[in-house]
């Protein structure tokens, strides 16, 4: 980078604002001379800070006071969200916790009634997964505000991506007795887009509608292509409509969607009429791509592949170790355990017959999962050094995933563990190691 330009982070520190704020200034054209350097922006060193009339939820937010010594700038969720959003998040979490605690009590009252036990357990599972979604959205919201997310566009068939999502969304909505209909009319189906972020946008909008409907309602999704002023680009309008008749209140989903859409250079409009429902419209421009041959990345899952496998579970938390051992055992595996990386490496090294697979937690005391994986890969016994290793973590940060994979792990599973994901990762890891 030329000495005449500064990075976004350097400018943010100089002006005492967030990295995300400087990125917004660049994308909105407020900083003359700012230009892209690869995936990042660079700003002329002599650039002047524009007037910061920042509006959040209709309220003026003053720039931070540079003279406030000893105060660490607050870039957490508490700084970026107003009281109403935090209240809504708290309400949603408490609603799910009430269900979990209430039905757990009912389970204890009816331990011998199989039908009720299954029904109560299903509610507890759904509520637990909903809390996990809220947590993941909170993490993503904070990363978006801190400028830690980037757009990764790849050429692909947007129609096929939409069909895959809609199939999943219909199953999700059906669980609440909600009918979901779609209508897709796109001229240019091959576009450059970030499939993961598009999925998160659509997923959050559908979940937002489901939460407001509650049960027995309708959601309509349609997408069409409208004229774009940019040559070589297609402007796609994505519309999500529901017939929720209750009071409208934004939860965690909408702020996440707004920031994702903004990051991708688009805009969103939300229209709600009490008693009639909500219409959410997202406009995004995608570069038109040449038709590409889609490579099938998925593999046919074989759940029987887990039966009889000798595995080592490396987990420092006793409660998590107990739960994860039960999950792996129920899936048909013979499970040995280790409390940290030191014990894990010793067991892999000393074991007469190599383990079929190692499930490695990342964050542990003494020797963590990253270091333990590197040590195993460097063992002199090549058969043991080639043991399939699947990383596990409660974090959802991409940097954690990249770090453990670069250390030699063959796969990555986010906690809590799910059998389908375990099958998928074990199958891929065994195949990968067999080819080495």
Structural commentary:
This protein has 436 residues and is an alpha/beta fold. The protein folds into four domains: 61 residues; 66 residues, Helix Hairpins (Orthogonal Bundle); 129 residues, Histidine kinase-like ATPase, C-terminal domain (Heat Shock Protein 90), CATH 3.30.565.10; 131 residues, Response regulator (Rossmann fold, 3-Layer(aba) Sandwich), CATH 3.40.50.2300. It is 43% helix and 22% strand. Strands 6, 7, 8, 9, 10, 11 and 12 form a seven-stranded mixed β-sheet that branches. Helix 13 links the parallel strand 16 and strand 17. The longest helix is centred in the first third of the chain and has 32 residues. The protein is globular.
The proportion of residues in beta strands is: 15-25%
Helical percentage? 40-55%
Alpha-beta classification: alpha/beta
List how many beta strands DSSP finds: 17
- Judging from the principal axes of the Cα atoms, what is the shape? globular
> For this structure, what is the CATH homologous superfamily of the largest domain?
Response regulator
Q: Largest sheet at a glance?
A: 7 strands, mixed
Report the C-alpha radius of gyration, rounded.
Answer: 25 Å
Cα distance spanning the termini = 40 Å
Q: How many discrete structural domains?
A: 4
Regarding CATH, which class of the largest domain?
Answer: Alpha Beta
CATH topology of the largest domain: Rossmann fold
Mean pLDDT: 84
Per CATH, which architecture of the largest domain? 3-Layer(aba) Sandwich
Quaternary class: single chain
- Counting DSSP H or I runs of 4 or more residues, the number of helices is 14
Uncertain stretches: 52-69, 77-81, 295-299
């Amino acid at each position: 980078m030329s000495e005449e330009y500064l990075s976004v982070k350097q400018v943010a520190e100089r002006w005492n604002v967030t990295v995300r704020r400087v990125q917004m200034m660049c994308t909105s054209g407020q900083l003359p001379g700012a230009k892209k350097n690869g995936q990042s922006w660079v700003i002329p060193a002599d650039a002047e800070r524009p007037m910061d009339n920042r509006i959040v939820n209709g309220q003026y937010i003053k720039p931070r006071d540079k003279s406030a010594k000893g105060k660490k700038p607050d870039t957490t969720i508490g700084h970026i969200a107003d009281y109403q959003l935090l209240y809504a998040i708290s309400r949603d979490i408490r609603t799910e916790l009430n269900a979990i605690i209430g039905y757990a009590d009912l389970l204890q009252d009816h331990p011998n009634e199989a039908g009720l036990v299954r029904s109560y357990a299903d509610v507890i599972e759904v509520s637990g997964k909903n809390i996990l979604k809220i947590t993941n959205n909170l993490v993503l919201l904070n990363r978006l505000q801190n400028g830690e997310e980037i757009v990764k566009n790849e050429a692909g068939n947007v129609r096929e991506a939409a069909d895959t999502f809609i199939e999943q969304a219909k199953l999700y909505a059906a669980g609440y007795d909600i009918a979901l209909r779609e209508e897709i009319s796109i001229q240019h189906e091959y576009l450059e887009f970030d499939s993961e972020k598009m999925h998160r946008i659509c997923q959050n909008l559908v979940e937002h509608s489901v939460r407001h409907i509650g049960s027995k309602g309708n959601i309509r999704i349609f997408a069409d292509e409208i004229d774009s002023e940019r040559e070589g680009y297609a402007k796609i309008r994505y519309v999500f409509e529901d017939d929720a008749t209750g009071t409208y209140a934004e939860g965690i989903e909408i702020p996440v969607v707004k920031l994702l859409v903004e990051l991708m250079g688009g805009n969103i409009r939300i229209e709600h009429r009490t008693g009639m429902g909500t219409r959410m419209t997202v406009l995004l421009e995608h570069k038109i791509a040449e038709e590409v041959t889609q490579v099938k990345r998925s593999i046919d899952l074989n759940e029987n592949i887990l039966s009889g496998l000798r595995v080592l579970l490396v987990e420092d938390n006793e409660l998590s170790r107990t739960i994860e051992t039960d999950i792996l055992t129920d899936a048909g595996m013979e499970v040995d355990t280790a409390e940290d990386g030191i014990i894990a490496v010793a067991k892999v090294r000393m074991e007469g017959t190599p383990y079929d697979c190692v499930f490695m937690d990342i964050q542990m005391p003494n020797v963590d999962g990253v270091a333990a994986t590197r040590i195993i890969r460097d063992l002199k016994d090549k058969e043991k050094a080639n043991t399939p290793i699947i990383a596990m973590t409660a974090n959802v940060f991409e940097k954690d995933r990249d770090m453990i994979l670069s250390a030699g792990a063959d796969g990555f599973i986010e906690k809590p563990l799910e059998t389908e994901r375990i099958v998928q990762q074990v199958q891929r890891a065994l195949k990968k190691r067999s080819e080495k």
